[in-house]
Amino acid sequence: MPDFTSSIEDYWQLRLGNCREALEANNFEVFEARDAAEAREIVFETILPVTGARTISWGDSETLYATGLLQALKAHPDLEVLETFDTEAPRDEIIERRRQALLVDLFITGTNALTETGKLVNLDMMGNRVAAIAFGPKNVVILVGRNKTVLDEEEGRHRIMNYAAPVNARRCGKNTPCAEEGYCTDCDSPERICNTWVITEKSFPKGRIKVVLINEELGV
């Protein structure tokens, strides 16, 4: 009898392979990784040298943090990493840094959902993360755990509104109805984190957005 764990891995490998084909048809450059460690290696050893990036920033992403990539980039002597989550910096300065992050060579983040038709579905509070995905940085890397895959945009929206957003609201200590109830109420809370939807159907120019598919449960 086949090993149950290996059967699960094979199943996800098949699904991620299908996602890869759909993404590549939509002009994304796609890489596949067995786990978070290999994803870090792909970005550091393959993507980074090809882009020639010297300035880097990122959008809030538990998947990114799980790879350990951010620490490796910050330790690299030839890279300038723009810190946009400095808890000791004044709020106005953080906002300005996030504006400057739209001009870096390479921006790294995750996605809230990835459809099997090769689209990225994202919902943002401030908009800096989705803005960078859409335009600004010369190159964008999207790190995607297998748990982010959904059938279509509708399922992606449902996943975000009734899982990712409530979890992230709690993670960030927001006093919102979804943090309390566990699902979206389309609230008017001043701390609402759901303000800007962006659906990326294709990468333009071709290959600007590079997606690393990770065969591991990562992120929210």
Please tell me about this protein's structure:
This is Lactate utilization protein B/C. Pfam families: LUD_dom. It comes from candidate division TA06 bacterium DG_24. This protein has 220 residues and is α/β, with parallel strands linked by helices. Helix content is 42%, strand content 20%. The chain is built from eight helices and ten strands. The strands form two sheets. A six-stranded parallel beta sheet has the order 1-10-7-4-2-3, with helices on both faces. It is globular and about 50 Å long.
Number of helices: 8
The best one-word shape is: globular
Assign the CATH superfamily: NagB/RpiA/CoA transferase-like
Characterize the main sheet: 6 strands, parallel
Instruction: Please tally the β strands and state the result.
Output: 10
According to CATH, the fold-level topology is Rossmann fold
Q: Helix share of residues?
A: 40-55%
Radius of gyration: 17 Å
End-to-end Cα distance = 33 Å
Largest sheet, order of strands side by side?
1-10-7-4-2-3
Low-confidence stretches: none
The chain-level mean pLDDT equals 96
CATH C-level label = Alpha Beta
H/E element string? HEHEHHEHEEEHEEHHEE
- Domain count: the total is 1
Strand content: 15-25%
Just name the CATH architecture. 3-Layer(aba) Sandwich
Question: Structural class of the helix and strand makeup?
Answer: alpha/beta
